Task: structure prediction
Amino acid sequence: MTDTAALLAAVPGLARHLRPATLLHPYAVPGGAPADPAASRIGGPAEWPPGEPWPHCTARHPEEEDVLPRRAPEPPTAATALVPLARIRAEDAPHLPRPPGTDLLQVLWCPNDHDDIQGERYYYGPAVELHWQRAADLAPATPPPPRLSAPEYLPRPCAVRPEHLLDLPDRDELPEELVRAVAEFAEQQGLEYERDLGRADGWKLGGWPSWHCTDLIPIDCHCGARMRLLLTVESGEDPDLSLGRHGELHVFVCPVDPAHPVGLDIQG
Result:
C-alpha cells in the first residue's frame, strides 16, 4: 500500500478532498516543438482562428514608464501582443471544466508585470488569458512580437508528458479535525504531509494550489463563487520561467462560468 493510500485508509474523511489533476512534466525537444503539432505543449508555435486578430494586452505595464520613453515616443498604454504559454488538448486533462463544443485550451499571457489587474487583491506578475477553442478551427499563426517583454516570462518551447493523479490539499485547506488526524498519521509513519503525502508540485492542471509563502488566500470570482485552481506554472525546469522570487503562478477559474475573468496568485 502506498503512503497516500495508507493515509486515506487511516483518515477516510480526506477522500472528499481529493481532486483530479494532471502533472505536465514539460521537457525540451529538438527544434523547439513536439513532433506532433496537435500535441499539448508549453510555448512553441502559435495557432489561431484564421481571420481573427491576435490578442493584445492594453493594461498598464510598470516597466514601460521607465523603459519605453527612452526607446520610442509610445504611450504607456499602447497594446502589446500576448505570447503562447500553453496548449492543452482536452484528452490530456479530461477533468478540466470547459465550455461545450471545445476540445482545446490555449493559455496566453502578457510577458510583463502588472499591478492593477486584480482589483483589491495584491498581484504583481503576467496577465493571463484562457481561450477555450476547437482545434479544427485553428491554423498556424505568426503573432507580432511583444513590444516589451521580460525574458523570464518567455517560455522555452517544451513537449509534455501528462500524468493523471488525485491531488490532496495543503493543510490550510483542511478542517481542523483532519489536520490533527493527518499530523498524527504522518508522525507515526515518519513522514511530512506537505512533502510526502499532500499536494503534487510542478506544472499542473487542476488539483490544489500551494500556500507555502502565505496563509490561505481565498480566491473569489466577481460573481461570488469560490474559484478553483486550473493551472500551476512552475519556475525553472525546461520552460525556464521565473515567477515572483522563482516561485509558482496559480491561475484560478470560476466553477460557475469558465468564461469569467481568471484569478491569479503567485507563491514565491
The chain is about 15% helix and 30% strand.
